[in-house]
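#struct-pred

JT: dropping the chains for the assembly here, can someone run the whole complex?
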Amino acid sequence: MIRLLALTVTALLLIGAGDRRSGYDDASPDTRAMQDDDAANPAFLWVQQGESLWPEPTGSAGKSCATCHGAVTTLRGAAAHYPAYDPKRGRLMTLEQRINVCRSEHMGAPEFAWDDDKLLSLSALVGLQSRGMTMAAEPREPFLSEGASLFRERMGQLNLSCAQCHEDRAGQSLGGSVIPQGHPNGYPEYRLEWQGMGSLYRRLRNCMVGVRAEPFGPDSREAAALALFLTVRANGMWIETPAVRP
Amino acid sequence: MVRVLINVPKQVAANKPFDVKVLISHPMESGQRRDQLGQAIPRDIINHFICTLDGETVLDADWFPAIAANPFLSFSVVTDKSGTLALTFTDDHGVTQTELVAIMVT
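RK: done, full complex below.
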């Protein structure tokens, strides 16, 4: 009986995992083909820029990323754990924020703005090292619960929560596009709508502007908590960074 | 200088077509859009692209505004001997950039 129960529970978990759809699964065959071929994926223009920035000394300390980290390949798996809790600062850090902290604390260089192409280039390069691994963010409290309640909180003049579209109506249409489940498994990603590269924060900001809410700030606790909730919700899914999305 | 990614096979067979794939980092601003103040954003596109193999033209194309940002171009080339592909493109500012890539025939 217990064995049967265990089997049932396992089966339920498996179905639960199988029901999660990456944005890739909802994209058109053309968009998927762009992502499948690195030579056709425009995000690799950013990766290429990241590769040239990596060994380039900058800032008052005269250091480059490579001075401390060596080859970027040593960071395989690093991006899978972000957003991560930083005990020294007592807050969550996204990968982009971590890169900026490296710049200001170790390199003596100015921090990048959240939408700076160079920041996206470096996070795309670091993210690419973890492609094909599974997402593995730590479900850190109290941030996770905060993020979970933000996900279900109605906001903006349209008075919509994230969950109303990306949970209740995922797979249905908004205008001509399929509403994805909203798993952040390909960031930073190239979005055809943007004709450019964007971080998860840009995506969240986009959604918040879309429901006519005041977007959370790029370094706000709310944005990081929401990013952590979404990432933990997608834990175990394949990392596709840098993905291509419509 | 804009960023360019060129992808060709490491080695190609003589007289067998192979694919050249090119990604160019460019805004391809169509000239149809307006900024927040209602001013027209001037057109800024790559308007000419030419590919030569050791001086012989392989592809010569005029480009127009209906091409997305960061354009991707893929075409086939056939050759019987090794050489250098030169990809040259010119934008609306008159800036010309050339990228070279070696083709190895085995």
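JT: nice. The interface with chain B takes residues 34, 37, 39-40, 42, 44-45, 48-49, 190, 192, 195-196 of chain A (CB under 8 Å). The radius of gyration of chain A is 19 Å.
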